[in-house]
Design brief:
Chains A, B: Its EC number is 1.1.1.108. The structure is a homodimer of 365-residue chains. The first copy, chain A, is α/β, with parallel strands linked by helices. The first copy, chain A, is 53% helix and 10% strand. Chain A folds into two domains: 210 residues, 3-Layer(aba) Sandwich (Rossmann fold); 98 residues, Orthogonal Bundle (N-(1-d-carboxylethyl)-l-norvaline Dehydrogenase, domain 2), CATH 1.10.1040.10.
């Protein structure tokens, strides 16, 4: 069950709206701030998709959704919540402005998570004059309402207790929190993605393959592997009876061969953008983005469900978590509404507050 | 139905044995050459795993397996086959020796596929004095009996017709052939894998995360995405209503940020090998390699089956192919053995021969 009583979402783009959807579908009230006049429509589109996916995941009926309110200012959005997720565009000046505002108006014990895909929390929390110690990066993956991973990164001023509470909050809404051990830009997931993305741009630019061919090469081979085991475990198995050391010994030297073009960054000019956009149209314009979203979501739910039945029914990887999460949602749906719910919320909020206050005390002490 | 009457496998390691398993389970006779005294045991281990996976895929019963014979020489293995798959270790001198031998003794119209993960076919076919035009790279992904992708690459001397026949042969045993447009080292799949692998080595070496954490970061996020859509289609959807151009415009500039360490190759010393092997033990030594193989195979079959039910039952990506392949295997299993089978084989062989002879004629003409 969630330990958050009310949350705020600052920014309602693809990522922000994904957070809103995950929170609401867990029965948590959310106040959102987004200056885009289209925000309400965009969020409701994402909610539609998320609701559709969750109905497949929990066919017995979903929990009562949290209430969504649109705030006119950041102050209004955050003043009475115990968790805030910031998902504004990736510009440090903007992050500073928004985080300063959040910090000024949020309750002192509210945890602040940032969805940034790459900016270091240390560089962001300098803008928080009151309680920088409660900022963590909570970097999700799109679609946020379905993909479980959230990378948690603390900055120099972040208290370990804030990281602990953030872990609990994210886990309570069905996610898999992984705490990154050292703060670096782009963290871990996006480092790997950027590496593959750069190489992919070269392959397209040089005419080795089209975007459709490259996508097929991924999804008919290692994509299937990585849905269930990461690269190290995959390679351990590939080493055969001799295992990991054998694999490393065999493939290590390849690193010295002049294969990849990683050393350079392809020039990101109009020509390359055109080439990719045109090839992407050839590949996908038979579907609208909304149709593709549905296809993607259906596939993701089906994959997680398939994995949930593995390992003698215990589930494997994302499938094991999927088992727990869908059970939790079903249990929440079966709950009597009103009284018991608000009582539990009051209890939970207290717990979060107690925890969140701990770092503050420590700082003073 | 397969258009190959009899095949040869040269090399019976993890990849070679995977080919043997796929071929035999498609009812194709295979002669294998591998000087390793343990080869027979190793191949039969892989066969056990493959048989187990295929029984899940085709619960109504498998086709009659092809006959496996161990040859004492390459000449003996290849003299009467119409398709040869070479899977010896990645050393050019060894590839030259083996391909020269294959070329010398194989029927003139037999297609030769190489499993190399990176060596250019142009650099390999120079060793084939008789018929270099029939060499293609047919680069598979482990486990070969389950993962459908095969990258086909022709060299300077390869005839287009040989590529066409190779495509048909691989497709006939349930694979997804993708022809690479220009010959480069490591082709496409391994370029992407190497990029991610290098970055992963840095992340481990620098203590940002452990191999288990990195694996979790992959398999709870983009690994799930890439099992069903490749990165370009994923990003198209992520662009939201604005699509691919929006995504490119938004994320393009990040390429200039000094995030990844791709520019350098981490030194591949004993310390790094130890660190990774130790962390890999921590992650996985509760399972033997054989157990992990079973888990992996079960997961892969389950994912492909889940995808086969998507898209209104037509299947999506590897799932669509999985539908066709399992239907084909079931049909083959339902066939009366003997007479009808050998008649069809004779017919099919004739067709392959006609096609394979075409390039030869062209060369002479």
């Amino acid at each position: 069950m969630s330990i958050v009583s009310k949350a705020a979402a600052i920014g309602g783009g693809v990522i922000g709206a994904g957070w809103v959807a995950r929170l609401l579908l867990n029965g948590i009230d959310v106040s959102i701030y987004d200056p885009d006049p289209e925000a309400s429509r965009k969020v409701s589109e994402v909610m539609k998709g998320a609701r559709r996916a969750y109905k497949q995941m929990v066919p017995g009926g979903l929990p009562k959704e949290g209430k969504l309110t649109f705030a006119k200012t950041i102050a209004e959005a955050v003043h009475d919540v115990d968790f805030i997720q910031e998902s504004v565009p990736e510009r440090l000046d903007l992050k500073h402005r928004v985080l300063a505002e959040i910090d000024l108006h949020a309750p002192a014990n509210a945890i602040v998570g940032s969805s940034t895909s790459g900016i270091k929390p240390t560089d962001m929390q300098v803008a928080m004059k009151k309680h920088p110690e409660r900022l963590v990066v909570g970097h999700p993956f799109n679609p946020v309402y379905l993909l479980p991973l959230v990378e948690i990164v603390g900055g120099e001023q972040t208290f370990p207790e804030a990281i602990e509470v953030a872990k609990e909050i994210y886990a309570s809404i069905g996610m898999k929190p992984v705490v990154i051990r050292k703060e670096i830009e782009a963290f871990v997931g996006d480092r790997l993605l950027e590496a593959a993305w750069r190489e992919a741009l070269w392959l397209i630019k040089d005419g080795i393959c089209t975007v459709e061919e490259l996508d097929d090469i991924m999804r008919y081979s290692f994509g299937l592997r990585w849905a269930q085991m990461g690269m190290f475990q995959v390679y351990r198995v590939a080493g055969g009876e001799a295992g990991m050391r054998h694999f490393m010994a065999q493939f290590g030297p390849c690193l010295k061969w002049p294969w990849t073009k990683l050393m350079d960054v392809p020039e990101f000019n109009d020509e390359l953008v055109d080439l990719i956009a045109t090839q992407s149209d050839d590949q996908s314009d038979k579907w609208s983005i909304r149709e593709l979203e549905k296809i993607r979501d259906d596939n993701l739910v089906a994959i997680m469900e398939a994995l949930s039945k593995q390992n003698k029914g215990k589930g494997w990887g994302a499938g094991e978590l999927h088992n727990d999460y869908t059970k939790q949602l079903a249990k929440l749906a079966a709950k009597k509404p009103k009284a018991s719910k608000s009582a539990e919320k009051a209890k939970a909020t207290k717990a979060v507050k107690a925890k969140a206050e701990k770092p503050k005390k420590k700082k003073k002490g």
